[in-house]
Amino acid sequence: MNITLSIYFSFSMNSYLIKSFLALVLVSGLSLGSSNGQNFYKEKVPRNNFLQGGIGLGTIYADNAGGIRNLDLLLRPGLSFTYGRKIHKNFDVRANLGYQRYKSQKIDYYSPVVIEIWSGMDQAITSKNNLLYLDVIPSFYLFGSNNHTSRKKINVYGGAGLGLLFNANQTVKKHFSGFSEHREAQVTGYIPFKGGLSYRFDLYTDIAFEGTLMLTFSDNLDGNEGFNRLNDHPLIGQIVIRRYLNPFKSIY
Description:
Blueprint: H1 2-44, E1 49-61, E2 76-88, E3 91-103, H2 112-120, E4 126-141, E5 154-160, E6 162-175, E7 178-202, E8 205-216, E9 233-244
Antiparallel strand pairs: 1-2, 1-9, 2-3, 3-4, 4-5, 4-6, 5-7, 6-7, 7-8, 8-9
């Protein structure tokens, strides 16, 4: 009798353990499947909006900036912030806000003859500039994608748009009695040309190198007009980090 009860009890315990194990496996499988299903659904929703920040160096093609052929243009730091939205698998539209410092060559960079010419024309010999710019640029991507998950590891993009530049400068002019300092502020329009090479760092992040040329409508950003044939044109190169935004959350 005791043997029979022992066998029955052992069989019942084993049956209970087997049923519990099968139930645990079933629940775990359903949970994992539900999690994978939710994650798959989430990634099917495209992240069309992005934010990016950039930092780098810039210079300017200007009358008292130095010579491009001699590669002696002075570089100064700058930064930018961008909000963009994808409107097609190969196109996005982005709004850029940036700041750039600029400093001209020193007085002894140019010959005394050039200095006297500028002095006679009341032109600035040196200048320091703070450039604040805002532009909107449609950009074309060489390799298009319908979803952020299918974008290429390496991509090339570029575009052109319209912008507005605010310039606060401090200039030095030479007169018969000596030197004088002047402070001015001006606003001018420009056409930005932007190009970039991006690298897909992870599912939601790109790292890119961007270059921007601003064709302004002014030859007086540096306080000096007419010495060069062209207007004054800032040129900026930056390293940027781009984050694709979850449409259901603010950033991630």
